[in-house]
Amino acid sequence: MKKLNPVFWLRVGALILASAIMLGAFGAHALKKYADATTLHSYSTGVSYQIYHGLALFIVLFFRSYIEKKYIALCLKFFAFGILLFSGSIYALTFIKIINNSILPQHFIVTFIAVLTPLGGLLFIAGWLFLFISTFLKPKS
Predict the structure, then answer these.
(1) pLDDT for position 70
(2) How many CB atoms lie within 10 A of CB 141?
(3) What are the mean pLDDT values of the chain's consecutive 10-residue runs (141 residues total)?
(4) What pLDDT, on a 0 to 100 scale, did the predictor assign at position 105?
(5) Cα Rg for the chain, rounded, in angstroms?
(6) Rounded CA gap, 42 and 22, in Å?
(7) What is the Cα–Cα distance from 137 to 141, expressed in whole angstroms?
(8) What is the pTM of this model?
(9) Cα separation of 89 and 105, whole Å?
């Protein structure tokens, strides 16, 4: 099994959180002019979940000595890819609504991207469940 690189995941978590702050500030200031309240609320949800799960990466890293190693990697990957799919799809849908022009028909793009949001949510749930399950297993050194 490949060895866990905590420094790599620390860097990933730091970039995720830094980008969440930038995206949040962008949404709070620049998007107000272009998006309706419902769209802004969805965008804000994407930012919030990105922050929560960026912090979850640090939680897993901090408590890694209590977690079975194979579950550490799964949790980290589930949270990172969950952010990409969940928050990323919300950001994409927000910008599609604002720009409203594309080579492909908007309906096709919106439908395809909208499917990614719940998949990201499922990855978040899987990450938390694997973290929960791992607390019942004795960590192997």
Answers:
(1) 83
(2) 4
(3) 86 98 95 89 97 97 88 95 97 86 60 90 96 83 57
(4) 59
(5) 17
(6) 16
(7) 12
(8) 0.89
(9) 17
- Confidence (pLDDT) at 1: 55
Could you state, in order of their start, the residue ranges of all structural domains in the chain?
A: 6-134
Distance CA 89, CA 119 (A): 10
Whose CA is closest to 45, among 29, 60, 23, 30?
23
CB 43 within 8 A of CB 19: no
And the tokens for 72?
Answer: 């550490």
Q: Enter the tokens of residue 43.
A: 């965008």
Structure tokens at 116: 């990614």
What gap in Å lies between CA 63 and CA 44, rounded to an integer? 29
Expressed in angstroms, the distance from the first to the final Cα of the chain is 13
Q: What is the DSSP letter of 100?
A: -
Could you give the angle at which helices 37-62 and 106-134 cross, rounded to 10 degrees? Answer: 30
Q: How far apart are CA 137 and CA 70, in angstroms?
A: 11
